Amino acid sequence: MTTLKVKEMSCNHCVGRIGKVLTDAGIAHTIQLEDKTVTIEDSSNVAKAIEEMDDIGFTAEEE
């Protein structure tokens, strides 16, 4: 399990966009808007998750 910080995530629309792209990529995750974090369940998917979020305009960094 790896937690990523997504500073640009500021609303439920952001959560929805990130959730959709990760789900579509088959990446199990949990999103916490209040903390601006996305937890990736399988750490082997972290690089792919970061890339998927980057493709839709969000910068994710490991905490």
From TrEMBL:
CDD domains: HMA (cd00371)
Superkingdom in the source lineage: Bacteria
InterPro entries xrefs: HMA_dom, HMA_dom_sf
Pfam families hit by this protein: HMA (PF00403)
GO terms of molecular function: metal ion binding
Protein name: Copper chaperone
Chain ranges of the HMA domain: 3-58
